[in-house]
Amino acid sequence: MKKKMAFVTLGCKLNYAETSTYERGLSREGIEVVPWDEKADIYLVNTCTVTEHSDKKCRNIIRKLHRISPEASIFVTGCYAQLKKEEILRIEGVRAVFGADEKPMVVPSISAFLKPAGDKNADKCRRTDFLPAYSSGERTRSFLKVQDGCDYFCSYCTVPYARGRSRNIPISDLVRQAEEIASAGIREIVLTGVNTGDFGKSTGENFLDLLKALNEVRGIERYRISSIEPNLLKDEIVDWIASGTKFLPHFHIPLQSGSDTILKAMGRRYDTAFFARKIDYIRHAMEHPGSPKVFFGIDVITGFPGETDALFKETYHFLKDTARPAFIHIFPYSRRAGTPAAARMDQVKDSVKTDRVKILEELCTELHAEFMEANRGVRENVLFESTDKNGIMSGYTGNYIRIERPYDPELVGKTVPVTL
Ligand code: SF4
C-alpha cells in the first residue's frame, strides 16, 4: 500500500517552492499526498525562523501533527531546522531533522523517510548546494527559485546563517525550468530567492541577463520579482522592464526603516535618499498619464534597538510623504539570538512595538486606499485564477490589484482587460 505523506510549509515563497519540489519528486516515487490536517504516515515540515513567532509556530504545528497522527514519522527541514536542530529533535514525534549540514538541498528520496527510527541524519548534503525549485500548487502562477543564500549579514537577521552564502544555478537551467512551468499551462512566474537581485554570483552572470532570457520563454505571459534589495534594483533593470517586457509594474522592496540612523545600525546598504530616488526613478520610467500606477510593497521593521519616538517618526514620514507605497509589510523587530542587534542594550519594549505597528497599519490602509483611487478608470489586464469561492473567481492586475467577478471556467488562466 502507498505511504501517505503530508507537507506543511511555513514562511516565505521560497519555502513554498521548495516544498512543492519535494512533493513532486516524492509523488513520482509513489507516495500518496494527503492534506496536512489528515492522518498520514509521514509528514515533512518546511520551517521558517525569521522571527521568534515563526519558531513558535513551527513547534506548535509539529505538536499538532503528532496529535493528529501519533504513529507518524515527522521530518523537519528549512531555516529553523538549520539553526536549531537539537531544539526540534526534542519535540515528541520528530523522527529526523534535515538541518545543519544535512539539509536536503537535493530532493530527498523516499528511502530517506523510511530509515529505521534512531537514524536522525536522514540525508547528507552541504549548505552550499542549490536545490532547484518551483511551485506547482496553483494553476496560473508559479514561484521559481532563482537564487539562494545571502552575503549581506544585516545586523538583525539570521537568514544568512540558515541559508548559507549567495548562490544560483545558470540562466540556461532556469530557462529550462520556466519552459517546464509554461508547458504545465501556468502563465505567470514570480522570481524568488533569499536575496534575489544578487543572482549571478556563482555563475558569473547577472540578474538583468536572467530577466532578458526568461522574457523570451514562450507561454509565460507575466513575471513578477518577489522581493529585491533597493541597491540591486539597478536603473538599467528598471529601464529595460519599462521598455515593454513581460515584467509587471509591481515591486516588492525592503526599506526596513525610514531613518538613516537605524538603517546604518541595521547594516543596510543604502540610505533614505537613495531609496527615495529609486522609487522616483521607477515611477518616472513606468507611470504615464492614463497608465496603471506602479504597485510598491515595502517591508518595514519597527522597534529595532535604538528606535526612539523621533526616529520612528522619521520612518512614518518617509513612508507617508516620500515613498508612498501601495502596501507596507510591517514587522515588529524580533530579537534573534546570535545577531549583533540582539546584543544591544537599547531594546524597545514590546508594548511600544505594538503601538508602532498599529500606527503603520493605519498608514498602510490610508496609502492603499489612495493607490486604489489613483488607478480608478485605468485599463489593466487581469489574469484570472482557478479558485471558485462561493461562485466568485478572482485574479490580479499587472499592478497587483485583486479583481473579483462571477466564476466562469472559461476565464481560468486567461488574461482579460478590465477597466478598474
Ligand atoms: S539582505 Fe539582510 S535581511 Fe535580507 S536575507 Fe540578507 S541579511 Fe537578511
What's the topology here?
Elements: E1 4-9, H1 13-28, E2 32-33, E3 42-47, H2 52-68, E4 73-78, H3 79-83, H4 85-89, E5 94-97, H5 110-113, E6 141-145, H6 159-163, H7 171-183, E7 188-192, H8 207-215, E8 222-225, H9 235-242, E9 247-256, H10 260-266, H11 272-286, E10 295-302, H12 309-323, E11 327-332, H13 350-374, E12 379-384, E13 392-397, E14 402-406, E15 415-419
Parallel strand pairs: 1-2, 1-3, 3-4, 4-5, 6-7, 7-8, 8-9, 9-10, 10-11
Antiparallel strand pairs: 12-13, 12-15, 13-14
The chain binds iron/sulfur cluster (SF4).
The site of iron/sulfur cluster (SF4) has 10 residues, from α6.
Describe this structure in words.
This protein has about 425 residues and is an alpha/beta fold. Among the domains are: about 5-115, Rossmann fold (3-Layer(aba) Sandwich), CATH 3.40.50.2300; about 380-420. It has helices at about 15-30, 50-70, 80-85, 85-90, 110-115, 160-165, 170-185, 205-215, 235-240, 260-265, 270-285, 310-325, 350-375; strands spanning about 5-10, 30-35, 40-45, 75-80, 95, 140-145, 190, 220-225, 245-255, 295-300, 325-330, 380-385, 390-395, 400-405, 415-420. The strands form three sheets. Strands 6-7-8-9-10-11 form a six-stranded parallel beta sheet. Helix 8 links the parallel strand 7 and strand 8 (about 220-225). The N and C termini lie far apart (about 50 Å). The structure holds iron/sulfur cluster. Iron/sulfur cluster binds near residues 152, 153, 154, 159 and 194. Iron/sulfur cluster binds near residues 154 and 229.
